[in-house]
C-alpha cells in the first residue's frame, strides 16, 4: 500500500497556482511530495510552452531522478497528448531516458500496441481501467499478466455509489480471470477522498495530487501537491 503523487496531469494552466508545468517545477514538486510521504511520482511531461508532450519525457525524467534518487517515476501515454496513434508510438520509441512505468488507458484503441511497445523497451505498464468494459478488454490481452500494476481510475463518474459499483465490477472481472496484480485506486475531484478511504479499506494503493483534485480532505483548497500527499498518507496509516 503506497501513496503515489500525481502532480499535474492534463490540468489547464490556470487550474491552481502551484500546478507544476516546467521541468524544474516538476522536479522540485516531486521532491516535496516524496518528503511528505509519497512513495512514487506520476507526471505528465510538458514541453517548454507548458503543453503535454511525450517528447519531453527524457529531460523530465532525468531531472526528477536527480532530485528524487531511488524513487519510481511514471508518466502518462494518454492518446490525446500527441493526438494520433502513430505519433504516440514514435514518441515513446524515441525515449532514451526511460521512466520506471507508464500508464496506458485501456479505453484507447491503440492500448494493446502501446503496451507491447513499452514492454519491449523494458518499461513497466500501469493498466488504466476506468470501466468494466476496460477490464474485460484487459483480461483478454496476452500481455495482461505481465503488467506492473492495475490502475482503477474512477475519473469520469462523480457519483460515489455509481463509482463504487464500477470499482466492484472491475474487481469482479479481474478476479474471475484470476489476475492478481498490485492495484492502485483513485478518484477525481469530488470522489478523491472517498476512494482514498476505500483503497485503505481494501489494502490497495492510492494516489492524490493536482491531477486528480485540489481540495484537501477537509474541503479547503490545498496549498500544493505536498499538502495533499500529507493528508493521504495520514489516511492510509
Write the topology of this structure.
Blueprint: E1 3-6, H1 23-35, E2 40-43, H2 57-67, E3 72-76, H3 79-82, H4 85-93, E4 101-105, H5 111-121, E5 124-129, H6 132-139, E6 149-153, H7 160-176, E7 183-186, H8 192-202, E8 205-208, H9 225-236
Parallel strand pairs: 1-2, 1-8, 2-3, 3-4, 4-5, 5-6, 6-7, 7-8
Structure description:
The protein is α/β, with parallel strands linked by helices. The chain has one domain (3-231): TIM Barrel (Alpha-Beta Barrel), CATH 3.20.20. 41% of the residues lie in helices and 16% in strands. It has helices at 23-35, 57-67, 79-82, 85-93, 111-121, 132-139, 160-176, 192-202, 225-236; strands at 3-6, 40-43, 72-76, 101-105, 124-129, 149-153, 183-186, 205-208. The chain has an eight-stranded parallel beta barrel, surrounded by six helices. Strand 6, helix 7 (160-176) and strand 7 form a beta-alpha-beta unit. Helix 1 packs parallel to helix 9, helix 4 (85-93) runs parallel beside helix 5 and helix 6 (132-139) packs parallel to helix 7. It is globular, with a radius of gyration of 16 Å. The mean pLDDT is 97. InterPro entries: Aldolase_TIM, BKACE. Pfam families: BKACE. One of its GO terms (molecular function) is 3-keto-5-aminohexanoate cleavage activity. This is 3-keto-5-aminohexanoate cleavage enzyme. It comes from Pleomorphomonas diazotrophica.
